[in-house]
Each structure stands twice: as structure tokens, then as C-alpha cells.
Amino acid sequence: MTSKTDTISSDEENSPTMKKFIFLSYGYETPTPEIMDAWGKWFASIADRIVDGGGPLGSGREISRVGTKELSPGTGAATGYTIFNAENIEEAEKIAKRSPIISSVVVHEIISMEN
User: Which residues span the domain enclosing 33?
Assistant: First the structure.
């Protein structure tokens, strides 16, 4: 169950001070009904903040100047993303801390390229 402090009002979401953040989830566990329920509740608690609900990430490749490295899903891999609005990095961190963290979560502000 969420409390008033766990949910975000649409007035806050429409605030001109809102910034976009990307949430990167790391780690993998086979989804159980409990895990799926926890994610559903977390997404519901931030529904007014979501810009892009994201999704799970599969295998990938890291491309660098020295070559390409195959990346497979695992406990140390990025396994999902979500883009959401928050006033600042501190608020984004609070939102991320309420998520069903598997290994870890990384949050970055998305910098606007518009003037």
C-alpha cells in the first residue's frame, strides 16, 4: 500500500521545474508472481511521473575503440530501464529506492539539449 508521500500528484508532475531521469536496473532474477506484483505496485505509485515505461533489456554489445564485447543478461548486467520526471536527483533517488531492486539501480538526469 502506498502512502501520500509515496505517490506523486499531477500538479507536481506538471511543474516547470521537473527534470527527466533514466532509471537503469541491474541484476536478474527469474520473475516470480511476487516480483511481478512488486514491480506493478512500484509502477502504479509513480504512474504520473513516467515518461517512458521502458522495459527489460536483453543481450547487447559494448562498442569501444578497441573492439566489441558481447554483453549477456546476468546479475551484473543492465536489465531494464524507465524514464520518469522528478524535481531533482534527490527526489529521483527516493523514487528509485522504492523500486524492487534486484542488484542495484543507477539513476542519471537526462540533460535537455534545447535552450
Answer: 10-110
Q: 25 exposed, middle or buried (CB, 10 Å; 0-12, 13-18, 19+)?
A: buried
Q: What is the DSSP letter of 31?
A: P
The answer to whether residues 84 and 8 touch, using CB atoms and an 8 Å cutoff, is no
Name residues whose C-beta falls within 8 Å of residue 79's C-beta, 6 or more positions apart in sequence: 25, 26, 27, 28, 56, 57, 73, 102
Per the structure, the count of domains in the chain is 1
pLDDT at 11: 45
Q: Is 103 left (phi over 0), alpha (psi -120 to 50) or beta?
A: alpha
Residue 99 in domain: yes
What is the mean pLDDT for each group of 10 consecutive residues in the chain (115 residues)? 42 66 89 90 95 91 94 82 96 93 90 81
